[in-house]
Specification:
By secondary structure, the chain is an alpha/beta fold. The chain has helices at residues 8-16, 18-26, 30-33, 38-55, 64-74, 83-106, 156-160, 163-176, 200-219, and strands spanning 5-6, 110-121, 126-136, 142-148, 181-187, 193-198. It is built from nine helices and six strands, in the order E-H-H-H-H-H-H-E-E-E-H-H-E-E-H. Iron/sulfur cluster (SF4) is lined by residues 17, 19-20, 23, 225-227, 229-230, 233, 235-236, 239, 241.
């Protein structure tokens, strides 16, 4: 039997609302009911731009004009309610990327890759995650970088409490056979960044916590509704909660 795959998105969907999790991952109704959203389109446009930018060599070979041209090519306008709303987001993205290029030109780290899916066999399930960027510092330390396009500030507590970051660190530690690595959240709007480091003990603890969450999900058969998460939910029309 194929092992179930768990990504941070899948676990976070369950934590937000078990019934929504059932609609998406058990009944597989996402493609039928999911509506495009501006924040998804905007985040996707920025992620695809930065992927293309780093694949082409980053600030070493690409000018800020190259980056903005890649942005134009990667832009997706799905989900915006008006041309005005789309233009506002597009211009905000141009500004973020210009600042990103400026700060990248000053950094002294090597970007190993961007936008890569990693997986780890956890025994009874597969842990997966799509990582935005992996950097290597001069001393060899690896650093996972996770872009956020909506927020303006971030603290170390935010990074250490972020489930996706923990999963990404577990996956990279497994892939590169390292016992200690950094991880950062990078706010594209403000260039704010916060970084933490997890050692072998902290990674083992996170692995136990993640597996505990996965086991709780696998054991659930009731998939309770969470009314606090209903606003803007794509499944409102078919949910028994409505
Ligand atoms: S409508 Fe509310 S209870 Fe139903 S799936 Fe969506 S968030 Fe959960």
């Amino acid at each position: 039997m194929r092992k179930p795959q768990f990504s941070p998105t899948r676990i976070l969907t369950y934590l937000a609302c078990p019934r929504k999790y059932r609609f998406v991952y058990v009944d597989r109704l996402g493609a039928r009911y999911r509506q495009p959203r501006p924040y998804f389109s905007f985040g996707s446009s920025l992620h695809r731009t930065l992927e293309a930018f780093h694949q082409a060599g980053g600030t070493e070979t690409q000018s800020v004009e190259d980056l903005l041209e890649q942005y134009r090519d990667c832009w997706t306008g799905a989900g915006y309610k008006s041309q005005e709303e789309e233009t506002r987001h597009y211009e905000a993205g141009r500004q973020m990327l210009s600042q990103y290029w400026d700060s990248g030109a000053q950094e002294e780290v090597e970007t190993l890759w961007t936008e890569r899916m990693l997986r780890k066999d956890m025994g009874h399930y597969i842990l997966t995650g799509r990582i935005d960027r992996l950097d290597r510092h001069g001393d060899g330390t690896l650093e996972v970088v996770d872009y956020k396009s909506g927020r303006l500030s971030v603290s170390e507590e935010d990074v250490s409490g972020d489930l996706a970051i923990a999963v990404y660190q577990l996956l990279v530690a497994h892939e590169y056979r390292v016992g200690c690595l950094k991880a950062s959240i990078y706010c594209l709007r403000s260039q704010a960044k916060a970084t933490i480091e997890r050692d072998e003990t902290a990674l083992a603890q996170m692995e136990n916590e993640v597996t505990g969450m996965v086991d709780a999900i696998l054991a659930d058969t009731a998939y309770a509704c969470n009314p606090a998460a209903c606003e803007d939910c794509d499944f409102l029309r078919i949910c028994p909660r409505r």
